[in-house]
Write a structure and sequence with these properties.
Radius of gyration of chain A: 26 Å
Largest sheet of chain B: none
CATH class of chain B: Mainly Alpha
Shape of chain B: elongated
Number of strands of chain A: 20
CATH architecture of chain B: Orthogonal Bundle
Helix content of chain B: over 70%
Strand content of chain B: under 5%
Oligomer: heterodimer
Distance between the termini of chain A: 55 Å
Number of helices of chain B: 11
Largest sheet of chain A: 7 strands, mixed
Number of domains of chain A: 3
CATH superfamily of chain B: MetI-like
Amino acid sequence: MGNSWLGRPLFARLILALFVLALTLVGGIVSAQDAPAGVLRIGLPAPVVLDPSLHTNDPETLLNRAIYDYLVEVLPDSTIGPNLATDWTISDDGLTYTFNLRDDVTFHDGSQFTATDVVFTFDRIREAGSPALNILGDGYTVAADGDFTVVFTLPEVNADFLYGLGAPQSLVLKAGTAEPNVIVEGDNPYVNFNGTGPFILESYEPGAGATLVANDAYWTDGLQLSGLQLVFIDDSVAQVDALLSGQLDFIFKVPIAQVDRLADLQGINVLQRSTSQHPVIRLRTDEGHLGADVRVRQAFKYATDREALNDILLQGRGTVGNNDPIAPVFSFFFDSNIQNQTYDPAMACDLLTEAGMNPVEATLYVPEAFEYADMAALLQQQWAAACINVDIQVRTEGYYYDVSNPDNYFDVDLGITGWGARPSPQILLRQAYIESGIETYFNESRFVDPELEALVAEASQTTDQDARRAIYAQVSQIFLERGPIIVPYFAPLFGATSGRVQGLEMAPFVGLTDLRSVSLSG
Amino acid sequence: MTTLDKSTAAPRMTASERGQFSLRTIFQGLTGRPMPLVGTLIVTFFIALALFGPQIAPFRFDEIIRGAARQPPSSTYWFGTDHLGRDVFSRVVWGAREIITIPLITTFLCVTLGATIGMFIGYVGGWVDEIVARLLDSLLAIPALVLAMVMLGTIGPSVAGIIIVIVLLYTPIVARVVRSATLNLRAAGYIEAAKLRGENIAYILFREILPGVLPALAVEAALRFSYAIFLTASLGFLGLGVQPPSPDWGRMVNEARSTFSLTPWALWFPAAAIGLLIIGVNLLSDGLRRVFRREGQLV
């Protein structure tokens, strides 16, 4: 017995363990690469809020957009296109919107889609306090006029109302769905995921992934994928590695440092889209806070070398804007004649001396996201030459954006905040730079300027594009002179696909990317 | 009536019993064998870096050299530059101070606290010992990194926060080790003699028991130091450690991770430094254990 292979237990077990490990690894790779034909595999962070009327970020939107449909579509070029609504009319006074609906649409449970579902959806959006109300306003009423016509009535003109109907949370639900997207016990756990969308949820494993199959009864014939496989990976570098190892077909929000790595590889396509996504370096302007004196705000602008930030952090791929949220991507509204403050540390010191605040000693709070921690390190050095000494404090995103924490983004004196892409500059202006934004935790700088308030209100009600452009030029001028923010650049969005993906065009708010026309070769 | 003379009435313990040992013995023990010698040299090297780093490094740790981003190692930039244009060699050298200072402070605090608690409950015994020992055991059941992440995630990352967290995590471990050593000494003749002389509890703990547990404590301190380095670096890697632009090695590894394809050297050197320092401290603590075991101070 002593001479049998069992007589060398350590050696035998080691060999066995290595064999099992090798089998597991090979099995994992094979199973990952053996995805069913026609199934698009997407790597994305795990969604947290599943309610279609309340979700906020890209992964949540992407999942729900596959299951549900919008009344109208915000297209990648920020124009509005038809979807469940085939066409619409706006009354002369701009207060009544009438939509004609498709009559060939069914929900995943087989029931007919009608105007009642639209009424239910937008009543629920208002009652639930959905983020879509930031664009829609909460004063609208919605009523059905027959089975396939729906009428919205507004209390005042809202030039962006159609963008509100295409907001990420404006997905159309089945009338009477009390708890949309809540997994239930029993044979049909996904009964509450009942949309009209192109894909039907087949399985959902929190924190791990989801599988969806194509909706055979979908109302348009263009659907080419047989399903989606969502793989939840929070770490963006791990997503890149998974794409490179052939386990994924599409990832988005690729870190800028990974772009060069991917660009040179065969079989990988790098996608780039200009967006209105931008970081803001912002000061609190309310009494007793760092930026209360306009000269201090000016000093920070002179102390910041925007071009250097863009060159070093984005390798020049971003676009320097005007220190306001109106991005160059809104080409019709962007004023290219505005002359920003150039980097002038001496001027910054003079302004601070005038304000009696030379030198400034402050703490710069930064979320651990994108390249913001690196930006803080660069700013620290730029500002040091301009009589501004800052200590950097980096916080995880979850901590930083949770207003119940003591040093959250909304309360700190000086911070960097990331703002995602919006289809219209008006949305950002209304959310973050007028007085009502203080109550909703969006106006983090507490900037209240009567002239700006009046201009933003006027823009909301101005449907004429030229008139609106003139208003935004005045808005940009106010931000230049006394605004609470520095926008170092508007960042492009990078995504990547495997070579077999065709027809994928990323939306600026990438969760809204339309997957219906995507196909897979091979 | 006879009086008890403290100086003569009770027998004093022998040098061996008290755990006395000379620095010369330790030095000889550490340098007489190759592995402890290597450990001693590595730790000495990093302590020297921590002390004289600013004089050695050619650049400041936060200096961004315009036009020098992503440079590979060269005669100008020995370890290359990172994605922002900071000299990696200078950052690693400056970083030695961070990575050694915090673990040193935490080790001192947790050894002091842990030794006091451990000696006290070991000496007093009874229900006090039972309750406190079980409490310490329950704290040990929670994974260190998870607990550290939860605590720092709640109070926010800061140097003070890291020190508090590490002290809270490692004090129970030290206390447990010292308690065990104290239990072995509790019934020793010289302890009984001290009681008979009427010495107070503080005297007995720190003058009579402490020398006896010192060998075990020294080895444990070296181990805690090594673990504290690892935890500090891990927290830095997770973004819960020292704040940028600090050259914390863990944070450097994290920052370089996303740019690894472009600047792999920015990851190699801080990672190697962490590994080397931990290996050095472990070899040193292993050497210490051997010395004390040989001298009969440890079983």
